[in-house]
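Dear colleague,

Thank you for sharing your sequence with our group. We've completed the structure prediction you requested, and as agreed, I am returning the results in plain text so they can be pasted directly into your records. Please verify that the sequence below matches your submission; if there's any discrepancy, let me know and we will rerun it promptly.
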Amino acid sequence: MVLPVDPNCEKDQTTDADKLIIHDMLIPKPFSLKTVNNFNSSSPFGLYDIFNYLIYHSTDYDKQGLAAYKSFEYYRLFADGCVESLLTAQLNQEGVHVYVAKVPPFMKIKTDEGKEHYDLRFILGGRVTNRGSVLQARCKCKGGRDGGCKHIAAAMYFFISVI
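Please find the predicted structure tokens below.
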């Protein structure tokens, strides 16, 4: 039986959260990339891509997560204007588009770190073989370490609304 080393996510995991490995290339600090508010060169992305990523990206996705998706809880977070910002950086050599966003906590005033928003990222493929598919997503909330939290979903819905 394989059990998680830190099931409550109590240990600081900033070293893993700050690393980004795409196509065997290490990008040490994705949140420090030069980002812009221009989505003209972005990969095609739609509702099917969000569903595909949120439901099929992980074997850990459970019945409760599917119920939250079906209830449009994730979409309501976007529709209520909770996505504070969304910026992008195109990495031509790696063949990806990195999107960084700021989304406030849903049930609290501040994050566990004392911030007013969570920093998150999601990466879309830019090459022909994986164009528009989500390669990786990470949010600094406790539920976002596996890449499937409501903050990430809200940022993806926001992305669809701006392209």
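Summary note from our side: The mean pLDDT is 80.

Kind regards,
the structure core
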